[in-house]
Amino acid sequence: xxxxxxxxxxxxxxxxxxxxxxxxxxxxxxxxxxxxxxxxxxxxxxxxxxxxxxxxxxxxxxxxxxxxxxxxxxxxxxxxxxxxxxxxxxxxxx
Length: 94
Hints:
Elements: E1 2-9, E2 12-19, H1 20-24, H2 32-35, E3 41-45, E4 51-55, H3 63-66, H4 80-84, E5 90-92
Antiparallel strand pairs: 1-2, 2-5, 3-4
């Protein structure tokens, strides 16, 4: 299942998608939790009683601003959260 966290406003769509099937098979010991400088990720139990990563509620409406340090408008090659996620479960929409 793909879980989407974020929002859409006049400036664009800002979503972080987490593939929970890939997240459950994490071989990186949940490295996304410590890779994000803003500590935006948490582990939660989903509707199927699986422990998966999620974006904390406090950040879901401000992703465009909170991710700006790691993801400027141009000139970045990789993001700490996506690089740390070896199963490839984390994607950004913008």
